[in-house]
Structure formats: structure tokens, C-alpha cells
Design brief:
The longest helix is centred in the last third of the chain and has 13 residues. It is built from eleven helices and 17 strands. Strands 3, 4, 5, 8, 9, 16 and 17 form a seven-stranded mixed sheet that branches. Strands 12-11-10-13-14-15 form a six-stranded parallel sheet, with helices on both faces. It has a two-stranded antiparallel ribbon with strand order 1-2. The protein is α/β, with parallel strands linked by helices.
Length: 383
């Protein structure tokens, strides 16, 4: 089969790999119909995630058709069209029993630190991902869900991570009616977080970024106020001015490890790999929220330490909530929001590339060329 393979930082190829096979009776093999490149995939592409091995196939956002099932699979049949959460989880461990599917204890040798994720290095289990023609899906009775007939494929693929993560960020914020919510980052996660904040009762939503096309999308898609941090000497001061000098009630950090805004921090993290990620956005969140407020963190970071202003968070009495998204837990309510038009994930899609052009897709997305917000990958070449 054809698959994207990692060859080192900023180096990808599309190569022939062995078609995945059933390794456990509860496995399924899915023929991928549509995949996406996630912003967190760029951390792998840039060499920021430890133990990303040569030959690894990325991709944790994908949908497809069940091509083969193991002998113990009961809920899926060959031919079913399925959407697959980015988390790999057993469904029965202490964490899964409490809905913490992203923290499953049985799917990763590094499970004390992180759960299992498709296509996200051996740090998260070493599972090949869906930027390929076929992918092995463990615990097939637990994770995948048949795509509802009414759901658009592009909505379905974005619900496997980006949209679910944005919604989860708003949930983590524990938004109260009338709250002022600031979303840092107008990428796919931040856009859905902004939409979701309204659903959870926000009285005001402000999105911060520096890319004009993304800020415009925040205005048209999420009906949010926009702040371009390049236009201010200190964006935190501006956030205070915008909120009666108090700070926001809730800040959702939807940027993660490669935040711009400080040359020194960005070089230390993204270039020299001295930190698990640039802490710029997270520190803005800590400084920009009011005392006693809530910071929700859904931007992706590596496992290396970062220079976070923890003392400021302590002294302000902040509540900080974070996790990888337990995707399947979000779906029942999100499906209804998508069906009713309250959440519109596919509105974020700007580019579509055949699998054979995935090196170009990563370059365009990484360099933010051509107004790229969310690129999709078509393993069938668009057929």
C-alpha cells in the first residue's frame, strides 16, 4: 500500500509499505477514504516529539471503510463506513471505566505519561496512522463508530480530533453564563472552541492570533471578536484593557508547542529543542485570565519541561485544566450540534491534497501558505 513515511525533520515521502494485518482478534483493518493533517502533526514534522522514528506513518484524523475484522469483533462488519477517534483505548481499564479514554493504561508502554494515539511517534505507542491507504485499528469494538448517514465526510473526519478537541477545551473552561472567554489561536481547534464557548453560555468570545485569514474565519465562522497580537506591544495588556482591567473569566489555550510571540522562547523550543514547547501562549493565558479564573489547555506539548509561569498561576488562584481529548465521550452531544448546524467543522477546510502530494501539503500547512487553515488528504487521489 501507499503511505506517508517520516524520514527526519521536514522530510517526508510517500512509499510502499506492507498492508497492515490483523494482529489481535479484536483488530480491524480500515481502508482510509479521507484523512487530515492536524496542527499537532507539525510538531512531529518539525522534529519536536521524542522517539519519532524513521518510517513512521503519521495521521490521527481519518475515516474509512472496514476492510477486514478480527475473529472477536462483534460491532463492525466488512463494508461499514467508520470514523475513528484519535485515541486508542481498551474500554475496560480504570481510566476508560471513568471516561478518560485518552488516558488508557493498556495501550502504550509509556502509559504512565500518555495514552495511545495513532501516528504520533513511539512516545504514544508507535501505532502507524491514517495518512495511508490502510490502517490497523486495535480494540475495534471500542473506538470506531459507524458514520451517520446524514453526516458529511469532512465533518466526520474533523470530529475525530480537531473539532472534538475544540469542544473539549470549552468544556474544560467550565464556562458560566455571561463569561468572557478568550481563545488563544484561530486554528481549527481554536475556531471550534470559540463556537463551542457560545453553546456553553459565554457572553463574549475574543480570539487572538496574528494571521489575518484565520482571524477573519473566527469572525465569520465563530462570530467572535478578533485581536491581532502583532498590532499590540503587549497582548496581555490589551486583554486587560478589553476586560475592565480584570482579565478574562476563561482562557482556552489552543496553540500549543510552537507558539510565536517571543523570539527567544520560540528559538529555545522549536529550533534548539531545549523545551517541550514554546510556553508563550500558555503564559499569555496565565497572565490574561482574571484572578480566580480558569485556564483550559488543549494545545499539544511535548514531554520535555517548559518555562511556564507556574508561580503566577498559583498566586492568582487559577484553576488549570488540561488533557488529551477523550474523543468518543464528546461525540453524542457534538453529533447533535453538527446536525443542527450549531457546529460547522467542515467550514474550516481550505485545502485538499491527494496522498501522493502529502510532502507539499505539509509544507503549505507548516508555512501557512495560501491561507491554509485545515488540509485534508485523499488516499484515493480524490476519487
Amino acid at each position: 500500500m501507499r503511505a506517508m513515511t517520516y524520514r527526519g525533520p521536514y522530510k517526508l515521502r510517500v512509499e510502499e509499505k506492507d498492508r497492515p494485518r490483523i494482529e489481535h482478534p479484536n483488530d480491524a483493518i480500515v481502508r482510509v477514504q479521507l484523512a487530515a493533517i492536524c496542527g499537532s502533526d507539525l510538531h512531529l514534522y518539525h522534529g519536536m516529539m521524542p522517539d519519532t522514528r524513521i518510517g513512521h506513518t503519521f495521521g490521527h484524523e481519518f475515516i474509512g471503510v472496514v476492510d477486514e475484522v478480527g475473529s472477536s469483533v462483534e460491532t463492525l462488519q466488512v463494508g461499514d463506513r467508520v470514523m475513528v477517534p484519535f485515541n486508542i483505548f481498551c474500554g475496560s481499564c480504570w481510566f476508560c471505566a471513568r471516561g478518560l479514554f485518552s488516558n488508557c493504561h493498556n495501550v502504550n508502554p509509556n502509559a504512565t505519561a500518555v495514552g495511545g494515539i495513532y501516528g504520533y511517534s513511539h512516545t504514544t505507542g508507535g501505532y502507524d496512522g491514517g495518512q495511508a491507504e490502510y490502517v490497523r485499528v486495535p480494540f475495534a469494538d471500542v473506538g470506531p463508530v459507524k458514520i451517520p448517514e446524514w453526516m458529511h465526510d469532512e465533518d466526520a473526519v474533523l470530529l475525530t480530533d480537531a473539532a472534538a478537541t475544540g469542544y473539549f477545551g470549552a468544556q474544560l473552561g467550565e464556562i458560566a453564563e455571561g463569561d468572557t472567554v478568550v481563545v488563544l489561536g484561530a486554528g481549527p481547534v481554536g475556531l471550534i472552541a470559540a463556537q463551542s464557548a457560545w453553546l456553553m453560555g459565554a457572553g463574549r468570545v475574543i480570539v487572538v492570533d496574528h494571521l489575518t485569514e484565520r482571524l477573519e474565519k473566527a469572525r465569520t465562522m465563530a462570530h467572535a471578536e478578533m485581536l491581532n497580537y502583532d498590532e499590540y506591544d503587549d497582548i496581555v495588556v490589551e486583554l486587560k484593557l478589553q476586560t475592565d482591567h480584570l482579565g478574562a473569566d476563561v482562557v482556552i489555550e489552543a496553540v500549543g508547542a510552537e507558539a510565536d510571540g517571543s523570539c527567544l522562547q520560540h528559538v529555545a523550543a522549536a529550533k534548539l529543542k531545549l523545551q517541550g514547547g514554546s510556553p508563550v501562549a500558555l503564559n499569555w493565558a496565565i497572565d490574561g485570565v482574571r484572578k480566580g479564573g480558569t485556564v483550559a489547555v488543549v494545545g499539544a506539548y511535548g514531554p520535555i519541561q517548559s518555562a511556564v509561569k507556574f508561580g503566577d498561576a498559583l498566586n492568582k488562584g487559577l484553576t488549570m485544566r488540561m488533557n488529551q481529548t477523550p474523543v468518543k465521550r464528546q461525540w453524542p452531544r457534538m453529533f447533535e450540534h453538527v446536525r443542527n448546524g450549531h457546529l460547522t467543522p467542515r467550514e474550516m477546510v481550505t485545502h485538499r491534497f491527494p496522498l501522493e502530494e502529502i510532502p507539499e501539503a505539509y509544507h503549505v500547512f507548516s508555512s501557512k501558505l495560501d491561507g491554509c487553515i485545515k488540509p485534508l488528504i485523499l488516499p484515493g487521489g480524490g476519487n
